[in-house]
Here is the input.
Amino acid sequence: DTEVTQTPKHLVMGMTNKKSLKCEQHMGHRAMYWYKQKAKKPPELMFVYSYEKLSINESVPSRFSPECPNSSLLNLHLHALQPEDSALYLCASSQEGQIVHEQFFGPGTRLTVL
Amino acid sequence: AQKVTQAQTEISVVEKEDVTLDCVYETRDTTYYLFWYKQPPSGELVFLIRRNSFDEQNEISGRYSWNFQKSTSSFNFTITASQVVDSAVYFCALKRGGSNYKLTFGKGTLLTVNP
Here is the structure.
């Protein structure tokens, strides 16, 4: 199984809503990532979890709250978002270790904030 | 600081043409890694290749080939006999050696293959 899955595929939410994005992988990867991608731009790293611990937070606003319940799951909790947060949110995973490994990406969640 | 430049914003070709996507990188590290990803309209980034800085061997995979030249800091990607299914945005990315997780992406090249 070389797949990263993400749910939902599409999400529309108001600025006062609370929602969560989910990501799952069963490749035994111990590093998991959240990226944000605006139209016609490259992905921007938001968070990295390594062995279920938050390793990198790229100065992301607190209205985005990541969670890694176990080695296969990664969530992104959303609260009080702004319209400018509308984007494609991509999850990725990779192996850990001394050797650098490529990141495998999920299909993304297209988020629209009204 | 690291930087990846994909000077071609958009390329349009007719099916069966060969096309080369350029990637130029900047880094002061001696150990680094280069990647190419494909992003079709569906949105998922598909990993194509990883190349280590100490391995300048070029690679061919079917219709895809990559030319890595450290002397010019370039890692170009050629699609031979392009097909409509090759239409996508292609990203070149650079990663430092060590435990750093961050990928530095180029801005991407939109390739359109017309029938």
In short: Chain B touches chain A at residues 33, 35, 37, 42-47, 50, 52, 91, 95, 97, 101-103, 105-108 (CB under 8 Å). Chain B has a mean pLDDT of 94. The CA atoms of residues 57 and 111 of chain B lie 25 Å apart.
